[in-house]
């Protein structure tokens, strides 16, 4: 469930989030909207419960990156989600790993797309592409923002895919080169980094990724403002990488193979403090072990009490005196 105050929000997002979800309906890979309502003070939305987000899961992995099989399978699913959103006439404008989450139970291999509070229509009611504004705000998460967004240009479908590409590299190779920079203070340096990786830093940027991601960046950069992106060509490159590296598309995801990944991800904070998560896990394990030892000790005491109660009386107890008191007098009976 999501909640938002009716007043006092600098940028209310829940109403838009609910509206986009209602339009997505029951498309695969999007949580179902169950109910939305409001009170005089709050707005609420109830939607399908999903599991851990991709950022927490990635940070819980060794090296803070997925295996290539899992990373590429995630890329394939998230690309489909973005295409589905675009086909309905919407831009996300905040593509990043925390806005994708896995399902629960037997659906934990499905990746769901979440959070549409920054979404914007790019087509009018007649299906025509809206013209760009002369000065658009820098929206979304700066670490994943497109170059056009950094330059306060209107975003289009290409920009969602550019953000998706940064996320994909992160899934494959770990934290982005600019991940530790403060986005509020150093957004211009982050923009410079994104320009640098297109020229001199390109080889280094893709060094731990399949070479096909390099080709995908070229495809994305070739898309103009009103162009429909080449989703099929990008999907082909992802499948080509799977085939070339002989990766099994039916292989379980990393968190399905090792339940410790989910366990650790539960402790990873919103900013992904995976080292702290390890410490918290160790402390939780110690507390759990202490509780088990206490329960074992209590069970042992109970078993000893039961055993003692069932034992036959000892010879020393065969002869004893029991006092019986009646209303008339007290009798002493010896056995």
Automatic annotation (TrEMBL):
The residue ranges of the Protein kinase domain are 1-242
Q: Note down the stretches annotated as region Disordered.
A: 297-335
Q: Give the top-rank taxon of the lineage listed in the UniProt record for this protein.
A: Eukaryota
Which Pfam families does this entry report, sorted A to Z? Pkinase
User: Would you tell me the protein name for this molecule?
Assistant: Protein kinase domain-containing protein
Q: Name one GO molecular function term.
A: protein kinase activity
Q: Where is the composition biased (Basic and acidic residues)?
A: 297-314
Q: Which SMART domains match?
A: S_TKc
Xref: InterPro entries: CK1_Ser-Thr_kinase (IPR050235), Kinase-like_dom_sf (IPR011009), Prot_kinase_dom (IPR000719)
